[in-house]
Write a structure and sequence with these properties.
Layout lengths: L3 H12 L4 H8 L3 H9 L20 H9 L5 H10 L6 H14 L15 E14 L2 E12 L5 E6 L4 H15 L5 E4 L6 E4 L5 E3 L1 H10 L2 E4 L9 H14 L8 H16 L11 H4 L18 E6 L5 E4 L2 E4 L8 E6 L4 E5 L5 E6 L7 E2 L6 H4 L3 H6 L25 H8 L4
Parallel strand pairs: 1-4, 4-7, 10-14
Antiparallel strand pairs: 1-2, 2-3, 5-6, 8-11, 9-10, 11-12, 12-13
Length: 420
């Protein structure tokens, strides 16, 4: 059975014009297997399982930032993250820091220049905290730098998950109006799940599918050799020491608007020290693979939620109503980049649509979702929704139907006889 990485390389070679027979010879597989690999999608459409988090994982960004600042004392770092809530042992910190200690030895290196359109380099930088939608969130900057022209793209986010990672790539492609032939980054979990005993990369399947869709080859640096992607490392430092210093902004949207203006008026129009030219002047000669009106890759965030007895699903700290017949069911939830939330039943039919709420502990209610409860719909009872003790509290009064005694009209006629 072919791995995802093997299927990707087969597709990549075929797109470059290598015949099926030649690919079969290179891989040691028969031509039937190669054809099947070319016909099938790179990954299944089912949502991926999130890897199980280690106790140390939530603190990796903090540790990497401190190590970048020169702090390599494991005991000191252990004390710092323990105050932040780390529940593990100091041994894990020592194991994490050790490779960085070894990599700190000074090495002579030769600047590696790439051909036009060959390579883009990608990395994240941490920029403190930001107030976002009523919560304190960690702030990150995604940076992509093109190797030949040195044109740069930057975008600030409050998440580094795989969905945001893909969206930032997509925005960068639109900004550059094309895609480099390969993209180099370090061993980010959003791209690299790990390496096998021989050191071969195990790629995140969704990232590999994204690379296949846009026709670029993903490349990962050797662990602890950040200088391999020195162009983007320099780009992050440039953002930190030029754009970021003294900056004032109102929210994340304003911050990214200012960053885009900075790219167009300063970062990409300065004379670059390595090339002696403006990146924006060199960009048209970069020779990127054109987008050619290709539909954007689907970066919808997909997950599952179980609805409660009171016809609500919980999502990112807020609650959203769903039609009563779907209470206490497992439902598919999709969040779009435009801030919309779609809910689907087991058959894939859309049953609800909401705008994402700002803040936390909000209830987003559509009154029509509770109508069948107020009307005593038998279908609702069969679906189990009538097991609810009460409808959504905010709507209980709205749907309480008063009981009225039924009387014949003759009673009212007698009551009005003799009335003036």
């Amino acid at each position: 059975m072919l791995t995802v990485e093997q299927r990707f390389m087969i597709k990549h070679w075929y797109d470059k014009g290598i015949s099926i027979s030649e690919i079969a010879r290179l891989t040691g597989r028969d031509r039937k297997t190669i054809r099947k690999a070319l016909e099938e999608p790179l990954i299944a459409t089912a949502p991926e399982r999130k890897p199980r988090l280690r106790k140390l994982d939530p603190y990796l960004s903090y540790l990497e930032e401190r190590i970048e600042e020169g702090v390599l004392n494991a005991r000191k770092l252990y004390g710092e993250i323990k105050r932040l809530g780390y529940p593990g042992q100091e041994t894990q910190i020592r194991l994490f820091v050790q490779p960085f200690r070894q990599a700190r030895q000074q090495e002579a290196c030769l600047r590696f220049e790439t051909e036009p359109g060959q390579q883009g380099q990608v990395d994240w930088g941490h920029f403190g905290l930001i107030e976002h939608q009523g919560c304190q969130r960690r702030l990150y900057a995604f940076v992509m730098t093109l190797g030949w022209s040195r044109a740069m793209y930057v975008e600030f986010t409050v998440s580094t998950d795989v969905v945001q990672f893909l969206r930032c790539h997509l925005h960068a492609f639109h900004y550059f109006q094309g895609v480099p032939r390969e993209i180099l980054h370090d061993n980010l979990k959003t791209a690299v799940l790990g390496r096998d005993a021989e050191g071969a990369v195990r790629w995140n399947p969704r990232y590999l599918d994204f690379a296949d869709y846009y026709g670029f080859l993903p490349r990962a640096c050797q662990p602890y050799r950040a200088q391999t992607k020195g162009k983007v490392e320099s780009g992050i430092k440039y953002v930190r020491h030029n754009f970021w210093l003294g900056l004032k902004y109102s929210d994340l949207a304003d911050l990214n608007l200012q960053a885009l203006g900075w790219l167009d008026t300063e970062a990409n129009v300065r004379v670059h020290g390595a090339t002696g030219e403006m990146p924006l002047v060199r960009l048209p000669s970069e020779g990127l693979q054109p987008l050619l009106g290709k539909p954007d890759y689907d970066t919808t965030l997909v997950t599952y939620r179980r609805s409660s007895k009171d016809c609500l699903i919980s999502y990112q700290g807020n609650y959203y109503s769903i039609p009563a017949p779907y209470a206490q069911q497992r439902l598919l939830v999709k969040e779009t980049e435009q801030g919309e939330l779609f809910v689907f039943d087991a058959e894939g039919e859309q049953i609800a649509r909401h705008r994402l709420a700002v803040g936390r502990h909000q209830r987003v209610i559509i009154a029509a979702h509770y109508r069948s409860i107020a009307m005593g719909d038998s279908r609702t009872r069969r679906a189990g929704a009538m097991q609810m003790q009460s409808p959504a509290p905010a709507l209980a009064e709205t749907f309480r139907v008063p009981e009225v005694e039924r009387r014949p009209l003759s009673v009212y006629e007698q009551a009005t006889e003799g009335a003036p």
